[in-house]
Design brief:
single chain; 161 residues; mainly alpha; 3 helical TM bundles of succinate and fumarate reductases; 5 helices; elongated; transmembrane; iron; SuccDH_FuR_B_TM-su; membrane
Amino acid sequence: MATQQLNIAAPRSGDIDPKYLRKSASPGSNREMVKWLFMRISGPILMVLIFVHLFSNLMVGDGVHGLNFGLVAGKWASPLWQIWDLVMLWLAMIHGTIGVSTIIDDYTNKDRTRVGFKVALYLASIAIIVLGTLVIFTFEPCMTDAAGNLLDNSPSFCFNQ
């Protein structure tokens, strides 16, 4: 049985098939460096944000049994937790979008396919960021009717005010 030898071009040797080369940002652009730097800085920040979030929700108070509407309503009554969750949302979505965008660049050969995937990715990311931000800042656990009276299905802590 004869063995075939596979010739693979050395990296940066210039022997790369041009159909696999993509047009990158303009030579004077720092876009790739900025994305690389953002990923390296946002990763550790996200780790702190996420672990504090998990600790405060799962370990403090009643633990996992205390996870309910009232816990979220109580946390989001504080501007600290609103900003904390907002920063976590924005950083996670931008970090994830850049990561998935890189994967799309690596695994799509046709420009049309790449553009389609990226448009869908960016639209979904923008929608999640906008909707998440709206939820965080417009969340109102104590719903009232037109006359300003609390609704019957409001959480119990609304009636104690």
